[in-house]
């Protein structure tokens, strides 16, 4: 993870790393054998579901960050008289 900065590249990189981290943990959690204890199994299922949601949100956030980055770069390259 990078130190705090105002760089969109750093932000997008950090978001991407979080997305990979969550996806990896989610993959591991899905492969956990369900125990016979119903309460423990329910807890594992809830963790799996929450990781699934977090993975999807982080992937969507990464896509949104890329779109924002591209827009900023387009706006920067567009002459001011054309931007209005």
Describe the structure.
This protein has about 80 residues and is an all-alpha fold. It has one domain (about 10-84). Helix content is about 80%, strand content about 0%. The chain has 3 helices and no strands. The chain has helices at about 10-30, 40-75, 80-84. It is rod-shaped and about 70 Å long. The model has no long low-confidence stretch (mean pLDDT about 85).
Strand content: under 5%
User: How large is the count of helical segments?
Assistant: 3
Number of domains: 1
| Mean pLDDT across all amino acids | 87
* Structural class computed from helices and strand pairing: mainly alpha
Elements, N to C (H/E):
HHH
Number of strands: 0
> How far apart are the termini?
37 Å
Task: Put the structure in a nutshell.
The chain is mostly helical. It has helices at residues 8-30, 38-77, 80-83.
Features:
single chain; 84 residues; mainly alpha
In terms of topology, how is this protein built?
Elements: H1 8-30, H2 38-77, H3 80-83
